[in-house]
Design a protein that fits this description.
Layout (H helix, E strand, L loop, with lengths): L16 E13 L2 E6 L12 E8 L2 E8 L9 E6 L7 H4 L7 E5 L16 E7 L4 H6 L3 H6 L2 E8 L8 H10 L4 H7 E7 L10 H6 L2 H5 L10 E7 L1 H13 L13 E5 L5
The structure holds adenosine-2'-5'-diphosphate.
C-alpha cells in the first residue's frame, strides 16, 4: 500500500477553512471514534478551545464545533466524535479514511481556558462522553501545570470501552519525556462508568453530591476558596453539575471576569 502523504491536500478550501488531510482514524466503539489530520502551520489555538470541523457536502461546508484533543504544541490535530447513524455530519464523518480531506475552521474559540478562572489550587475537569476532548489538550499543555497545583480529570461514560484515551492518560502520559514528571506529580485521572460494572460506577453528579470524589483523594469538600472547575458534557450534565457547584458558592468565569468555574457543551449530538 502507498504511504499516506502527511502534507495537507492540494484542494482549495472554502473561505474561512483549512483543507486538511486525514492521517489516522481510530474507532473506539460503534458510538465513538477519533481521527488525526494535518495542521496548517498558521492555525493557532489554546488548550481547551474548539473550532468548526467537517466536510464538503454537496459543494458546501457541513461543519460542527469540535474541541481539539491535541495540545497546542502538536504538529497534527486530533478530534473525538460520536457516531450518529442519521446525524447530518457524523453519519458521514465516521466513514473518513486516511487520505480524505476534512475542513478545519480557521478560528478557534471557547471558554474552557485557565485564564477564565481565578488562580486556585485544584482544577477539577468534569467530562462526560466526548466532553473529554478539550481536557486531553489541557492535560498535555505544560502551562496548565504552572497554573494549578493539581489537576483532577473525571471522565464519566456509559461503558468501559468508551473511556477513550485511558491508556494514554494512565500509562503514556506519566512516561512522556516532556510532560511525564508534571503529570505524574500533579494529574489525577478518575474514570467512572455508569452502565457496566466498574470500580467507580456512578454519575459525576452523584460523585459530587456524595463527596465521594474529594473523599477518595483525601481532600476537603469542594469549595470555591481553593477549587476550580471546568465542565464539558451534555446539556443535562452541564446544567446539573453547574447547579451543584453554584449551590457550593462557585461562580461562572469569563474572559472579562475570571470566576471559579467555566462550562462548555460537548457540542456534536448529530
Ligand atoms: P447514564 O448512563 O446514567 O445516563 P451519554 O453517552 O448519554 O452522553 O452519557 C455519558 C455519561 O454521562 C453517562 O455516564 C451518563 O450516565 C452521564 N450523564 C448523562 N446525563 C447526565 C446528567 N444529567 N448528570 C450527570 N451525568 C449524566
Amino acid at each position: 500500500m502507498d504511504s499516506i502523504p502527511t502534507q495537507a491536500p492540494a484542494i482549495a478550501a472554502p473561505p474561512g477553512f483549512f483543507a486538511e488531510r486525514v492521517l489516522d482514524v481510530h474507532h473506539w466503539t460503534d458510538r465513538l471514534f477519533s481521527f488525526t489530520c494535518t495542521r496548517d502551520p498558521t492555525f493557532r489555538f489554546e488548550a481547551g478551545q474548539f473550532a468548526m470541523i467537517g466536510l464538503v457536502v454537496d459543494g458546501k461546508p457541513l461543519v460542527r464545533a469540535y474541541s481539539m484533543v491535541s495540545p497546542p504544541w502538536a504538529e497534527q490535530l486530533e478530534f473525538l466524535s460520536i457516531k450518529v447513524q442519521h446525524g447530518p455530519l457524523t453519519s458521514r464523518l465516521q466513514h473518513i479514511v486516511p487520505g480524505d480531506t476534512v475542513l478545519i475552521g480557521r478560528k478557534a474559540t471557547g471558554t474552557l481556558l485557565p485564564g477564565n478562572l481565578a488562580p486556585g489550587g485544584v482544577l477539577w475537569c468534569f467530562a462526560t462522553g466526548t466532553g473529554l476532548a478539550p481536557f486531553m489538550s489541557l492535560v498535555r499543555d505544560p502551562g496548565s501545570y504552572d497554573r494549578f497545583e493539581r489537576i483532577v480529570l473525571v471522565h464519566t461514560v456509559r461503558q468501559v470501552a468508551e473511556l477513550a484515551y485511558r491508556t494514554l492518560i494512565e500509562q503514556d502520559l506519566p512516561r512522556d519525556e516532556l510532560l511525564g514528571e508534571l503529570a505524574a506529580a500533579q494529574l489525577t485521572y478518575l474514570p467512572a462508568v455508569t452502565r457496566e460494572p466498574f470500580p467507580r460506577q456512578a454519575r459525576i453528579t452523584t460523585l459530587i453530591e456524595t463527596g465521594a470524589l474529594t473523599a477518595e483523594l483525601g481532600l476537603p469538600p469542594l469549595s470555591p476558596d481553593r477549587d476550580r472547575a471546568m465542565l464539558c458534557g451534555s446539556e443535562a450534565m452541564n446544567a446539573d453539575v453547574r447547579a451543584l457547584l453554584e449551590a457550593r458558592g462557585f461562580t461562572e468565569g469569563s474572559n472579562s471576569e475570571p470566576g471559579t468555574y467555566v462550562v462548555e457543551k460537548a457540542f456534536v449530538t448529530k
